[in-house]
Amino acid sequence: MSFRSLRIVLQVGKLLAFTPGHKEIKNGTVPQKVYSYSMVTLITVGVGISVGYRVPDYVRLTYMRAIIQILLDSILYVLNICTVLTVLWKRPQWHKLTKNLKTVQNHNNIVEKSDRFLFVFYNLIYCGYQSYMTLIFYKIMGVEFFKQFAIEYLQLYGQFIINFAFYVFSKMVLVRYRSLRKNLESQVRLVRKLSSRRIVYSLDHLNRIKYDIYLLKESVDIINNLFGWPVLLNIMFAGLQMLVYMQGIVVGAFYTYDTIIYTVMIILWHCVITLSNILLCDAVSSEVNKILSVAYSLDKHSLGDDRNDLTEFIDVVKDNFPTFSAARFFDINRSTIFGIFDAIITFLIVMIQFESHRISTTGQSCGCNGTSEI
């Protein structure tokens, strides 16, 4: 990912007040604050009207399904409001984050690939399945569909923007750690070559790498501060969505090919978006572990004061080990994936048992037609 890709994401997000603009990141103006609060008001009023139209459908749901649906609506609303207010109140941290990433890039002469077409590609997929969903449920519900779910077009796209912004920033951090590791590996090869000729090589270059380590650790902390709650809410929302749709498939709530295809698309979408961000966070930690391994291999060829400098460098890397977290509730790594699927499978079994018991006692399946699960 490059700053060009970041610029595109931020400019699109700025239109909806979900990210600051690329050029005016540092300070917010009065019109920008008014626009942000106006977006909060729009989302709040829109959700209120939407819920009013959905109440009759919610009443027909089972207690467990109603609770999960209310949680989904609440999480999505809180996610949107939290995102807008984070942009409004923490604008200087966005500026600090981009400044740190730019500094490390300049130190290491990093040439980044422009992945702006990746953003366009994901937008096309997003618009594609949203359009497909609109066609399916307009046939089922007519104009009532837009009364109940029109505001979610804005809400879900805002969720998509914040997910992609997190992906871009995390990818930029990964690229910079990878560059530091490659620079250190080149130094190791040079030291090995010189040591075979009994030539002493200075390790002064480690001071510059240490400074970059400090900046990247600070950048990860800023990302946690800016995206911690949105990431937590996104994981919760994705998990509940996959749970609802998987349960709908198992119990037969979706009885047409169109709705089944749409359900599979939604599950895959949430899996790809959520898992890619989690694996990216884990890749950053893995890259720093590789830096430590390279530093330890360099220790075999260092002597005297150089050994002290190397020991200090290793301590700096350990003390500034980057860890992504979801609002400090848990660290984000590969084990998070198993935790998510473990929770989904556990609750899916419980929901299926409740539904089976209800059908056996009443002789009726779920009265909803799947529209409340959009």
From TrEMBL:
Ribosomal protein as a keyword of this entry, yes or no, is no
Q: Which GO terms describe its biological process?
A: chemosensory behavior; male courtship behavior; sensory perception of taste; signal transduction
Q: What's in the GO CC field? A: axon; dendrite; neuronal cell body; plasma membrane
Arranged from A to Z, the UniProt key words for this protein are: Cell membrane, Membrane, Receptor, Transducer, Transmembrane, Transmembrane helix
Does GTP-binding appear among the keywords?
Answer: no
Where does this one sit in the cell? Cell membrane
- Which InterPro entries does its entry note? 7TM_chemorcpt (IPR013604)
The residue range of the signal peptide is none
Give the function comment from the record: Gustatory receptor which mediates acceptance or avoidance behavior, depending on its substrates.
Q: Which family does it belong to?
A: Belongs to the insect chemoreceptor superfamily. Gustatory receptor (GR) family.
This one is known as Gustatory receptor
In which organism is this protein found?
Answer: Tenebrio molitor (Yellow mealworm beetle)
